[in-house]
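#help-structures
NK: newbie question, is this the right format to request a structure? protein is ABC transporter ATP-binding protein
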Amino acid sequence: MFEEGEHRVSESSTRSATAVAEDPAGLPMVRVENLRRSYGTGEAAVHALRGVSFDIPRGELVALKGRSGSGKTTLLNLVGGLDSADGGSIVIDGVDLATLGENGLLELRRDRIGFIFQSFGLLPILSAAENVGVPMRLRKADPKEREERVALLLGLVGLADHANQRPGELSGGQQQRVAIARALANKPALLIADEPTGQLDQETGLAVMQLLRAVVRSEGCTALVATHDPQLLGLADRVLELSDGEIIEH
């Protein structure tokens, strides 16, 4: 999931990921046009995405559904700048990913996108607070600012009293809440989540999805969430379905 792939470097490879379009007002947070991605060659090639196009307005929580192998993770990897498309374009917050080189893509993922994993991805030797603070340490944020932001986010996800506990001392639902707080650490414009409730029971999964719904509103960010749970789909502003490598909007 979200594995690092090879990135295609364009002539504008030195462009900064924070160099947002001069006037992003009115532009969608995510614009995908005619996106194509295949694996393998010849008759054995698997066409994961076949000319996918869609927009996600700012401030929306959009759910992505589709059967296993439909290309959901491939699409999330491409939108998150973790893989390169064979064709088409992706624009995130006014920035065309094709204009970014390796450093620009790293900067984009660090500063503008928050990732939430099904497996939580927490560092077991760190406390909940320390896990949330990792992205801000990577940005060399001021220690006081970091501590205040960590406290605010743990409070937001209902874990203020668990700041000093390590992942192994937390339930699955609590660990996912820490992961959500960590994804929000650098105030991302976009949250990308691949089956974030896949390892949780139905009740806990619903609570986590409701939390995602709440943080999108409170933090003013946009979210693209892959899920197969009908209850969770009902909490989204919009549902996109992948079928045979093509998008169906409901």
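mod (FA): yep, format's fine, and the tokens are attached above. The radius of gyration is 18 Å.
NK: thank you!
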